[in-house]
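Appendix B. Raw example, untouched.
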Amino acid sequence: MARNLPSTDMDFKQIRYFVQVAELGSFAKASDVLDVPQPTLSRQVRMLELALKSSLLHRNGRGVELTAAGARFLEHAYSVLGAVDAAVKALQVQDRRFTGHVACGLTPSIGRKLIAEYVRRFRSELPDATLTISNQLSLALTEQLRASRLDFIVAHDPISSAGHEITVLRSQALYLVGPRMIGHDPGTVTMAEIWGTPLLLPSRSYAVRRAVEREAARSGITSNIRTEVDVLDAIFELSAEGFGHTVATHLAVLGINHRTGLSVQRIVSPEIQINLALATSVERNLTPLQWRAADLAKELFSQQASQP
């Protein structure tokens, strides 16, 4: 039996744009995430409103907020986009083998060795599939996941969202890494001792930096961050050259070449813990291939994130 097709003049791109603007509460932020000019984004959402004969967003000085009609439509939009994604990806499965493409995000603090090991396992178990890895800081990966550019991400303390499903893989302690030992214990260092030396850290988009600054604020300690660098490998190189100390996760420390002569001390008094987690988008229906790729990541990174 033939089904009646919708008579409204809209397309799925307009729906995706609307969802992104609604989630971020701002055309400007959505424009940055989607890499679409703001006038184009605004025009497409307006065309969607005209097609639906309803106002979906209320513009105010701080951004936008959903109208009652917009809130109702957003729930249906998630279902529509999820169904379309599932239909497209279902066509990629051939001969009941894992074929198709996986796009995932892995934070640099996981370390080069483990990222290489993940690629090896992926290639061994899923030889007919293709893989794209985005290697960026956790906040950037979260934004890409929200924009439906990635199937899943492995990141430290990804920002919680109603549109994300987060599975914590392991908690990790943080370590002070630098050109020389700080304090009297070669294995540990206190928070009070850390702030007495210049620090090299990424910007506040880095989950480790946020965790350290939260603990410093609770302890009433003023930070001594002298240099910001958003490239983890460059930070280690600068530290080895004597420009300061940095803070890194257990996984990142595992990737340090000991020939660099860097000192590694676990932070105590108080100890700082950070979660390594895998996140997926609830509005994306992953294919069996993508779920298997996510499971491979869970298996590898949950094992390797255990404390030494």
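End of appendix B.
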